[in-house]
Design brief:
Length: about 90
């Protein structure tokens, strides 16, 4: 199921609904708002830019957090070891 959001288009000067599943990159703009990039095999660089007035912070809520090796190590360390230990036979 696709995820649609309503944004304020700079070019159209009105609200539009976009499918976030088709967005390949989101970049904040120095003047405010964001540039959304969609895959486009006919465009130079293979993507088309669409400017919106909405804040970059709005889109960050949809991003998955990256996980570092340190994050994984901390998580593994915090796991409680159960009483049962698997006995794996040696070959």
């Amino acid at each position: 199921m696709s995820l649609f959001v309503e944004v304020e288009s700079v070019e159209k000067n009105t609200k539009v609904i976009i499918n976030l599943d088709t967005v390949i990159e989101i970049a904040p703009l120095a003047a405010g708002g964001c540039a959304l990039f969609f895959a486009d095999s006919t465009a130079a660089g293979g993507k088309t830019q669409y400017k919106v007035k909405d804040s970059y912070e709005l889109f960050k809520q949809f991003a998955m957090q990256t996980v570092s090796a340190d994050d994984i190590a901390k998580r593994v360390k915090s796991l409680k070891v159960g009483a049962a230990v698997l006995d794996i036979p040696k070959l």
